[in-house]
Amino acid sequence: MPPRKQQGQGQRPQGGTPAKAAAPPPAKAAAAPAAAATAAAPAARAPTQPNMPPVTPAKAVDVVPAGSNSYIRNIDIGASAYALAKSGGSKIPPRPKELTKLGREIDILLNTFPVLKIPSKKIYQYDVHIGNGAERRGFMNLLWNCKEVSDWRAKHGKAWIWDGAALAWATEPIPDGVIQFSLDPAVCKGLKGKEGKETKHLRIRFAKVLDMNTLHGWLQGKSDIDETVLEAMSFLDHLIRETPSQNLIRHKRSFFPPQALGKSLDNDVDRYDLGNGVLAVKGIFMSLRAVLQANMQPGLCINVDVANTCFWDGIELQKMITSLLVAPRNEFSHVQRMFQETNRGPGHWKKSRMYQILKRLRKVGIVARYRGQEFRYIINDWIPLEPSEVKFQKDGKEISVTSHMRAKWDFTPLRWSPTIETTKKALIPIDSCYIEPNQRYPFKLSERQTSEMIKFVVTPPSERLTAVRRGVGTLNWRQDQVLTNYGMSIDTNATKVKARLLNPPDVLFKQGKVTGREAQSGRWRIDGKTFLEPNKRPIQSWGFCIVKRDDGRGATIHPNDCMKFFNAFKRIYAGHGGVLSNEVMSKPIPHVQATPGNGRNLILWTWNATGTAWSREPDILFFIVPGRDSDTYKLIKRSCDLRYGVPSQVLQAMHVGKCQDQYISNVCMKVNAKLGGATCRAVEPNGYLSKFSSLVPYNRNITENLTMVIGADVSHGAPGTEDGSMAAVTVSQDIGLTKYAAFVNTNGDHREMISTENWNYFLEQALPEWRSKNNGFLPRRVIYCRDGVSEAEYNTVLSEEVRDIKAAFAKSDPNNKAKFTVLIATKRHHVRFFPAANASSRNGNPLPGTLVETGATHPFEHDWYLCTHAAIKGTARPMHYYTILNENNLSGSEMQQMLFEQCFQYARATTPVSMHPAIYYAHLAAKRAEAHVDQPFMSGPKQDPKAGPGAVAPPNFLPKQSSAGSSLGSEARGDIRPLHPIMNNRGFAFSAWYM
């Protein structure tokens, strides 16, 4: 078919491609007679088929090539030790013989369900080959479930299980060990496209008999974990998912109720409209785990939890486009008007706002309905022509899409709307099209959608437990015939364990303290208390900028109200022990006013006005913004961090106007930390940790006891963006572990392990700084807290990251013999605590210090779940800690109490936090580093020194152009360029700039 034409003149839109098909195809033809299957043919005589390897006599073959751990990623527990053993690495430290005796015993209900019976019969594993191996999963699924293959399976084994790719399992052997089918595409109704135009071949060949005894032996401690144990676990993982996969929408380990095409949301408690055509959907998470059971015996359990994700709403395409382009208005006429007003000429359409938004619908499946018939397509692109303008050749004549639709379907498409080009190159109008339901939404949610999602997701513990039990009812294990056929049974009652409630620490200030009992409530006040350490450098020069929106909207504040706020700030900060010069205490603070449209001049004018007023370089700058605006925030932080090396504090006008003492105290904590101070220190009142000099060197001068804590996290770009990975590392600066320096840089394209180049870059700065603050010594003990890695990556952390850290220590001091303890901290898991009434907060959440060591933990390796914070809303998520290296021989009780106590030392809050501060600070630094990306500075209008809002500061007020370390070359990160280095003005790079 010739290329489509613009207005009948043969002009193709900019960036367009020739169309190979026109409007929807005619009605489906009746299915052709099925090709005969070769089910009865013996394996030895089965003919070799095109695109298939020759049939060979059946024999046992390895499912995974030697040395491969590809299936480990599907197993929650057990892979860590196997991965280490397979690579020859160090063995994971074993679980201590006794559980901790700290605190008091409490009862906890977990959302895990014990496996009562594991299959003991023979299970036959088969290799499955479909076509040439390049077919899509959906097409392969159609072939597997076609009538010929389904009928044959029903005769050979009560319950076949297929992993959707290359493996299958059955309860009986098949004759001769191999079966091959030659399938004409007509045997599968609904097959379309290139994949369905030729004969396909499906072969099932015997591979091995699974030995479930090896799993029993490992759980009984009689044998080590090996491939056969993981194969058994992998099979059980597929077994429990087989029935739910037939009835629900599966995504990884979660299952969601399906949505019917065009179904209304009325009274649907499982779905919530987030706006812009996006639905939040509740489902069921299910995962098989090997655990130390409540009776202290190793076993298996099923972790069941609530799952939440987003789908495209299965609504009319017109409504979807309207919602995306002109929400909250719902009239398609607004879309038509926008289409008319959009410049659709060559070079303009694909840059237009309309196209940039509609582009999100590319690769989304749609259903077109004409005269009761349905045709399924995938959107490939949007043509900036209405259907009457798109022409193609039919029967030797040129005809428009509109004319074709009228003649074939008695249907006239709407005017002033773009035309769809599908992946099959068919050209169709948007009329009578629906979004195919049950398609996951792959993009980052907007701020408004995120807010709505939180409302939908956040539920108190009682409601979450009810939802979990409802999910167990939906899974219906007792009536699951597949589980019955294989001899597996699962308890429908949740696991009840004996947990511990650790003793909370006292929170100590320089003057005053918060008792452990008060601190365990989850929140305290600091009225009348002075910070543990005040700011190292007195505030002698400060100023603020009132940032107004360019369009004049948003919250505004008068300078007099700001003056009132800063007068209160001086009083309260001094009351907390903050150090301000006499001149600052007695004189008003200078200020300027600007808008984000002024670009970096906004910061320059504030810097100049401050420097001129005090005749010295600013110590800190404040910026009062009308509301939450990430772009303005990044603009401020980018210039202050990278150009001036000056601490900055952004405040919202609404809070400044209220001028509340508690809010000002919270700001004081941030300011004090940024200026080199420390808020508080937490110590357990009974002095438990004081027995361990390795962790409590506070009042000691013994350099051998110096302890350093390193925290690390790697964040990845949001789905649908081109952002790479960001590595953030924090390093403690003092022996009290209250202050941390942070180092950040790009880390390649979705790379989880921090690169050697980054470790060298970070520690070449951190270690000399540590030595300068600790009498020239490096620490003898290092506790490395790593966030966000899977069990299969534990060995990589040891073999790469810990190796790089040790190498950096050796390079800094060849005589240093630091020993390392490595803890993996994970927050993205689905274990939840439901405590008894005497161990819970008013909203039913666990109290800070709730420790669980059974029911959900590894049967042999040393891990635990620890809830250290008080959840105000929703259900608290405990942190999962895993010990993968313990050269310091720290006891479990020592590590658990240390982690718990230090969560009360978080510098900018009057609450215990959910994870160790070293990790929390790494999260903050990674988020803040988004403003440090390697791109030109936003300059704004050229400044006229005579007309600017502030006098130009003398040259000696400007910071020296020096930065911390040197920037890495882009070759270290592939195509991802490194971040701009932080301006190390007066030691700024080693301060809490991220706070």
Total count of helical runs of at least 4 residues? 23
CATH 4th-level superfamily of the domain at 682-697 and 705-716 and 723-743 and 773-858 and 868-932: Ribonuclease H-like superfamily/Ribonuclease H
Return the CATH architecture of the domain at 682-697 and 705-716 and 723-743 and 773-858 and 868-932: 2-Layer Sandwich
Radius of gyration equals 32 Å
Main pleated-sheet profile: 11 strands, mixed
Q: Which residues form runs of ≥5 with pLDDT under 50? A: 1-75, 696-703, 943-947, 950-955, 969-974
Cα end-to-end separation: 62 Å
Shape: globular
The CATH topology of the domain at 682-697 and 705-716 and 723-743 and 773-858 and 868-932: Nucleotidyltransferase, domain 5
How much is the average pLDDT? 84
Counting copies of identical and different chains, the oligomeric state is single chain
The chain-level structural class is alpha+beta
Strand ordering within the main sheet: 32-31-30-33-34-38-37-36-22-2-35
Mind telling me the CATH class of the domain at 682-697 and 705-716 and 723-743 and 773-858 and 868-932?
A: Alpha Beta
Residues in helices, as a percent range:
25-40%
Q: How many DSSP E strands? A: 38
- Strand content bin: 15-25%
